[in-house]
Design goal:
Blueprint: H1 3-6, H2 11-18, H3 22-39, H4 49-62, H5 66-73, H6 77-94
Helix pairs in contact: 3-6, 4-5, 4-6, 5-6
């Protein structure tokens, strides 16, 4: 969904759709615009900055594949990956937005880790022999 349609939503609908408040979205957008002014090089994207941020937020929120996210915004999968990575790096670099580094601790919280080895192995099959009758 493009920003043109999203900006008409109420605050609660906006948060339900995007995952952040309008004020947080605006703050993220300001950081991205500032970074764009500083960088100011390269070929401009087909998507406006608002749509780029929406694409990144929808990718993080909905756990969709890059292909599906890219198709929703009319760009190629590699372009979507590049845009999302760029947005992520700029927001992390600003140090205003981050995820907690420590896992919650306390009574009643039991963390269990399961490691799965998913390496691919070639299957050794015996060679077929030709029988002569």
């Amino acid at each position: 969904m493009k920003y043109i349609h999203v900006k008409t939503l109420s605050e609660s609908q906006f948060k339900r759709l995007v995952g952040v408040k309008i004020s947080t979205f605006s703050e993220m957008l300001d950081i991205l615009k500032e970074a764009q002014k500083i960088s100011g090089r390269g070929r401009p994207s087909r998507l406006p900055l608002e749509d780029q941020l929406l694409m990144a937020l929808s990718y993080w929120r909905e756990y969709r594949t890059l292909f599906h996210t890219a198709m929703s915004y009319g760009v190629h999968e590699s372009s979507a990956s590049r845009i999302i990575t760029k947005i992520e790096n700029i927001l992390i670099k600003s140090k205003k937005f981050h995820l907690p580094k420590k896992l919650p601790q306390g009574q009643g919280i039991d963390w269990e880790v399961i490691v799965v080895d998913a390496t691919e192995m070639t299957i050794e099959r015996p060679k077929k022999t030709k029988e002569i009758l």
